Amino acid sequence: MTILEPRKHGSAADGMVGGRLSRFEGELKITGNATYALEYPLENLAHAVLVQSTIAAGRVVSVDAAAARAAAGVLLVLTPEDELGLMTASDWFGNRSENQPFHPLPKVVRYNGESIVAVIAESREQAIEAAKLIRITYEEAPAVADMDDPKAGEGKLLDAMTVEWGDAEKALAASAVRIEAEYRTPREYHVAMEPHGLTAQWDGDQLTVWEPSQWTHGMARTYAEWFGIALDDVRIVSPFIGGGFGSKGGALAYGAVAVAAAKKLGRPVRLAVSRPQNFTSYGGRAATHQTIALGATQEGVLQAIVHRGASETSTYMDYPEQTGAATPILYKVENFSSQTRVVPVNAVTPGALRGPGKNPSAYGIESAIDELAHKLSMDPLELRLKNYADHDYQSGKPWSTRRLREALTEGSAAFGWAGRRHEPRSMRDGKALIGWGLGCGTFPVIRAPSSAMIRVLRSGRVEVVSGAIDMGQGTYTILAQTAAEALGVSIDQVDVVLGDSRLPGSAIAGGSMLAGSITGAVHKTANAAREEIVGLALNDPNSPFRDTGANTLVVSEGRISVASGDGPSMTLSDLLSAVGRDALEVTRNTLPDDAQSATDRSNAWTSMGRVQGPTMGDTSMHSWCAHFVEVRVDEDFGTVRVSRMVSAFDCGRLYNPKMVESQWRGGIIMGIGQALLEEGLVDPRNARTINNNVGDYLVPTNSDIPDIEVISVGVPDYEASALGGKGVGEVGIVGVAPAIANAVFHATGKRVRDLPITLEKLM
Amino acid sequence: MRDFSYSRASSIEEARKAALQAGAMMLAGGTTLLDLAKCGVGEPDQVIDISHIIGLDAISIDERAATIGALAKMSAVADHPAVLAAFPAVAQSLSLAASQQLRNMATIGGNLLQRTRCPYFRDPATFAACNKREPGSGCSALGGVTRNHAVLGTSEHCIATYPGDLATALVAFDAVVDLGGRSVSVEDFFLAPGDTPDRETVITPGEMIVGVSLPTSAAARNSTYLKVRDRQSYEFAAASAAVGLELEADGKTVRDVRVALGGVATKPWRAREVEQALIGKALTDETVTAAARLSMNGAVAQPASSGGNHYKIELAPRVVARALRTLGGLA
After folding, report:
1. pTM, entire model
2. How far apart are CA A76 and CA A46, in angstroms?
3. What is the pLDDT of residues A456-470, one digit of tens each?
């Protein structure tokens, strides 16, 4: 199946790594020709609809499905009574408990909005109508609505996440200047434009699932283990994803329901998770509380940081949103203490949402630093530069590269920060109070082994093939650039095929680890392919180069030539014709040489077992950024509008600045939403998120977003990745919310310590 | 969505007759009907499509009044030069509402009949109690999350906010709804919930909104619609004010003033006490501030423990005052 017929444009230079090539698949998307998971046309398709719990905790006593079963078009109703025969799959790290059945439609209700019943009918409309006829009888149990619920308690301390050095409490007590405050963030949601769902089809024991996926191989493993079939018998197809932001990394319970229904019915099944159901079918960012105390000298030299963080988790899994993730690495400090708790509540287990951990963590520390600057009557920029971390005080290692100073200085110059008046409420334009704020962000460099295949075809086309995915971040585009440059062909010759678990395995598109990992694999593969081409040209009996006496050849612009220039020169296509080959195919991976067994490879592509963190080598590797924000706050109404933004980033080398800038801006826009609009509203009586739709859960509109100037201050970091880049996708959002909160304080003199900063908090 | 029968009316009479059938709902732009059908609140057995009735989208205006057909699109009215000149607050109330795509589809008649955004009203599968949907079943919003609920015109049976902007502007300028057989002022057309929250308007089976007429006035010509909300676009009002002002020849004494509030009440809310306090008085910062406060007479907030709505009582007078100052040249 041809899943992508890419379009390319731009100059030859744009086709190289670092060029501003336009998005490969852009035209397909904007013309509606990109086929998404819920659009694949299949014969005899049935439609599944979920019925979710309306209580927060308890037990399903009975399900009356008689009326639904009798309704027009209904093919099947699945309830907790149906034994689907599924087994629990491995966790992210490949660990699997033995003989644990998996019930995607459980009898025990753990949160409001948990899927209990599925109705499958000939049409989606019939399934929806029949689903309304389902009557579930519950035995309710007491529930904890959220972490503010008095029943929630203190939660559990996660010892493994405690970070300590020096004697923070003592140094804090001895500090001449101290601040302490609590910062809160609410539940936040991914609200990707493409809601979740899948189309599933069985062919004997072979399963194909069209589902938006940030990790096709990992998802395939989960489905295989749930259904007890071989990994090779599962195929996940995901060439296009309408936004993931962390929500589409793994298979979810509704997927098991749809695939089980397809098996029972013997026909393909499509399950579209409705927009309200997207708020509970997987977790968003957990609500967090964190208390931060800072101690400093009168001159503003930081002496101690004490951080105590807590986040909501579910009653059935501990998922920490690491509010202490950025706290230890942003500043030079000799005394540090951070503790992290999780508080179980009756909610779906939270998940990763853009900038997980680092994002709420930066909100805390970057707000606290601003509070300290105010207390010291010191410019917040000056305070940050004064306490600049010369190395990683947590790991004790030197930075690989850290151009945060340049981000701060170049960002401030572009913004005009020097014109800032120190006093809050000192700048205005009529009724608009104007404030300038600053916030820094960071995200670690995470890497994972990946593999790729390159096919040089006699037709003249070059195919780059990987199971990696593109959810809008630009994988198609940068892989074409990487291959074109390394192989020595024109970008116009290159086709990229992605998003299929049958293709070579890859790092997950998460934690900003994909681009650095997969470009490394493609680069290695393309170099190997070029060497094979040269070898073929030098050694094949029918090659015109065989008798040139050359010991190497040059491949450039799709032609192979003798380096001196006085010899044969031909296209790769002509070379393959001359030697009688249809294609040359090369596959390489970036696993270590001692981990090349089939098991090693399978585990590498389907688990996080070989993921490398930022300090596993000799250095500490991270992306960095500084956001400069101007807000205008209506002094009567409390409404906040971001009127100007300059953000400077150190993400190392940029493989395609156009794609990168788009990702940065996207992250910043999400950060503006987080700061000012986004909040899951939980009804304390039944723990339901009641604003579970895009009319009531507010994300920014175009009118809320000013021009955003983004600046790159990075230099290539070849410790971080083969081509010198660090991650770009996550870091954009990190530090935006505190920059805005700090600007709001500067505008109004009022410190809002719980997001979002809605108007009533400023009136 | 359950099956329904569909018929297309070619005349007002045909539509009104068809609408007498049990379970009938009218379809014009469809933006509200589809929305309500998707959340399980609107479940028509019969859909009467009135969108093809010829001439019902006309907009006409002379020196005495504007007449707007029920099928005129929100965008057509918002962009109509004569409406913009004679009733700027009305045009602004439309262009600040919904999104461009919705405004291109939604009609004036349907806009008036849009239903509350109360999340408890819109989630029947979870919240069985709603006196609007099921009279006597109770109110799930009381004791729930009430940040966006009303502070004016509420009852122990319902605190749902009327969400629309247009009706707020219309009620300020004494607009009249043409129901075919009779005409009712917009102010009287909408009902406060009292003990019958299910009755939102005086419209009876077999009636339909045919159009809206708006008398011109000096206050309407010098008018504004100020809408305050967290998001710059595509959000319902935290508080809004439709205000019109006519000053005496001295340039400071109030001859006529119109004030209506949106986003804070169970129906489009004319603030007559504010108007009475200003007529005949000099328009100053002090008189404006004092009068604007009267807009919240009788307001009742929900408890803060549930993300309450007390802020609306503070916010709405500020919105009214800002609009008055802007029109009066005090800002």
Report:
1. 0.97
2. 10
3. 999 999 999 999 999
